[in-house]
Amino acid sequence: MRRYLGALVTVIVGAAVVVVVLVTLSSAARIPKLFAAPANGNFNLDGANLKHVTMTLQTFPFNPYEDAGWVQKTYPNGMDNGISVPQPGDNQDWVTYWPTTTFQLPAHSVVTIRIENYDSATPLLNDFYAKPQGTFGNTIKVDGKTENQIDPQTASHTFTIHSIPSSSQDWLYVSVPVTGVADNAKTDSFGMPDAPVVTEFTFVTKGPGHYIWQCIDPCGAGFDGFGGPMSTKGYMSGTIDVV
Ligand SMILES: [Cu+2]
Question: How far is the CA of 86 from the centre of ligand 1 (A)?
Answer without folding.
Answer: 19
